[in-house]
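Model it.
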Amino acid sequence: QVHLTESGGGLVQAGESLRLSCAASLRLANMYVVHWHRQPPGKQREWVAAITSATSGNLTTYSDSVRGRFTISRDNAKNTAYLQMTLLNPEDTAVYFCNAVGPGGDYWGQGTQVTVSA
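Modeled.
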């Protein structure tokens, strides 16, 4: 069983930046892919970004709404994945979730709230 814990959320103004962290209880290197998702208030959860394993080249992909502003990364030595968010706007307000897929299953964190004021 892998436990994921997100942190780094908070209240910021439009145009500012935040870095979210996702700490894994076991070896993150074993995870095939790490995703970030978000759920805006009153809306369905949506996929934000993904990064593959090092053996697959640490390939990254992004949703159209965040491409060019957000950067996903992973530090396997620290068992932590990150989501660097820049040029935040009110539409980025959501609970952000980390999701890791590995040989043992599909794991989710509890989420961290990001609120962007205009």
